[in-house]
Structures are given as structure tokens and as C-alpha cells.
Protein: L-lactate dehydrogenase
Amino acid sequence: MPVITTIDDLKRLHKRRAPKMFYDYAESGSWTEQTFRENSTDFDLIRLRQRVAVDMSDRSTAATLIGTDVAMPLALAPVGLTGMQCADGEIKAARAAEKFGVPYTLSTMSICSIEDVAAHTTQPFWFQLYVMQDEEFVDNIIARAKKAGCSALVLTLDLQILGQRHKDLKNGLTAPPKLTIPTMINLATKWHWGLGMLQTKRRFFGNIVGHAKGVGDASSLSSWTNEQFDLRLDWDKIAKLKEKWGGKLILKGILDAEDAKKAAAIGADAIIVSNHGGRQLDGALSAIRVLPSIAAAVGDRIEVHMDSGIRSGQDMLKALALGAKGVHIGRAYIYGLGAMGEAGVSKALEIIHKELDVTMALCGRRDVRALDRDVLLVPQDFEGSWA
Ligand SMILES: Cc1cc2nc3c(=O)[nH]c(=O)nc-3n(C[C@H](O)[C@H](O)[C@H](O)COP(=O)(O)O)c2cc1C
Structure:
């Protein structure tokens, strides 16, 4: 077993162990991938202020996210097809999250169903909803999430229409994979993955199959999205969904201060400043670059979270210092899952936590909740003057 010390180590193992179509599905952005790349490179532009001779004993990364105590202010983001990176992937990720003491978010497009994850975990998790045209399906899935005890609804707003990722089309991405000759050749080298898949029944979209009517090809993410997602989603509908859900609501995919103000006005509990990990509008600004303006616009009215590009505890500290109350990670834990299953997700969380804790100490800070812009050196034109 190689010595794993970084998220990048997990990524390399993920690439080796998961089928190409699923690794590529995770490790890609839309069109030219400019936004996907800049989500990471923009973090590198920000530097940290080293401080010395400061008491760094009794450090704490404990915090709260929408009123829930967490070991560090981080949640696992919803990731479709997680159960294809590794058998029973959603259950494994949720278990690692609950052991660590951070929230897990289950995607609408998961392989394990809401009920299945609830049956195999002890802590409430969050459920992410994509709004479909079929109102009955939406009402039903909201009721299912409530019944399963989900403690927050994460409503994704930046995917009414799917951003194109070239690799998914070229690889013929489906769940489960269709056995074409190139796929079979690739699967022949992934025996550990295959063994896991043979031992589980969870190989289809668990929240969809058997619950949605008139689905053409439920194995194809892109055709299902094109057929079913609600192009007419607007703020009125969001307000109605909020009523229907009646619990904690997080609006995901906000990248503009004007939209953030609307989210605050309808009374959501939190927003996630996000560009979907660079998978939707290619050419949009990185999430870390827009975070300060959004935090300044609504941070006193609504909890501001952030995702897109976080690969280390240092990235996490930068986001918190620029105004996020919490961060969400997508690929960083998916690499862990694809590399080593549940243990890999735990490893990813441990790596990020340790990096956060040590970075805080070296910046002369002891409490994660008190991080502010003062710990950073931010280029003067970081946010940019865009007209
Ligand atoms: C493979 C993959 C699948 C995703 N599926 C979903 C999804 O089903 N629902 C959703 O709201 N966001 C989805 N996202 C976006 C993530 O929730 C999150 O916004 C993004 O991964 C954050 O960027 P990061 O991967 O750089 O951390 C997905 C992201 C990836 C990488």
C-alpha cells in the first residue's frame, strides 16, 4: 500500500482503480474546462500570512453548519453516480462522513437510494434535489427525504440544462456501463472494482428507477437530464418548494450577488457559492473569486457556504477567511472513494482536517470560527474589475 499524504495521492489511485468512464466523469469540466481549471489555480494566487510567537495550544476546528455541530465546517457535496466509483459508494461516503462528524449530501442522481443510505447510517444526512418537470416525482422524493429523516434539502439551481463534458460523450457514460468492446477491455484491468459490483445489487439510479414514470433511458445521465429536468424553475417555484419541504433549505449554485440577495429574501438557511465544480457554465468565474463579493452582500443575512476547487485544508482556510461559514468538497472525497472505498473518504477528511489545523496554527490562529481576511495575503486585483 503506498503512503498517502495528499488528496493528489488519492486521485492517482482513483485513476488506477476505477473504470475510465467514471474517473473521467469526475475529473472533467464542461467545454474548454477553463472554469474547472481556474477553480484550483485561483486558490494558488492567495497566500498565507505566517505569524510567530502566538500561543497555538488548544486549537479547535469545531463549528456549526445550519445549526448542526460539526468537527470542522465542511460537508460532502452531492455527487451523482457515486456508487459507480466504488460499489455502494454513497453508503460508504455517508458512513465516513458520520464517523468524522461532518454532513453528507446524497444526490438525486445517486446509485444507492435515500432509503438505502438511511438504513445503513445512524446520523441524518442532507438530500440534494434536482427539480424535475414531473411534479408528482418531485413531491414524492421530497416526502421520501422527509420520511428518511434528512435534515436539510440542498436545492441545486445551476443545472436545469446539462453543461457538456466531452469525455462523457466519447466514453458513452452510463450506469451501469454498457459492455462495449473498449469498455470491456478497460474493465478487465479493474478487477477489484468489478468484484465489488458483482457483490452488490446497487447498480442503477436508486432514487429514479421504480419511482419516475416515462423515463426513456434511465441508465444515461445526459438523456435523462435532457428529458426530465425542469427548464422553468424560477424563484416562485423555489419558494413553493421551500414550503413543501418545510425544513432547512440550502440553495446551491449561486455565483452572483444579485442571486444571493434573492436567496436571502426567500428565507433560505444557506447558499452555496458554487459553479458546480466547473461542470456547468464554462467561462464563469471561479467560486473563490466571487465569494468575497457575495459574502459582503448577504453574509449578515444568510449562511454563506462555498464549493468548487477545494483540494486541501489550505484551500479550505482561504475560503473560510474570505467569508465562507463552511465549505463543501466534491472530487476531493470522490478520489478517496474511488481509491479505497470508505477508508479512502476517511483518509481524504483526515488529510484536509490536518492541513487545516496545522495551517491555522502557523497563521497564529486557534479557532476556525474566528478566521478572517487578516490571515491572508490576497492580490489587490484578486476579485477583478469586471464590467
Ligand atoms: C462527478 C461529479 C458529480 C456531481 N453530481 C452532482 C449532483 O448530482 N448534484 C449536484 O448538486 N452537484 C453535483 N456535482 C457538483 C458538486 O456537488 C460540487 O458542487 C462540486 O463537486 C464542487 O467542486 P469540487 O469537485 O472541485 O470540490 C457533481 C460534481 C462531480 C465532480
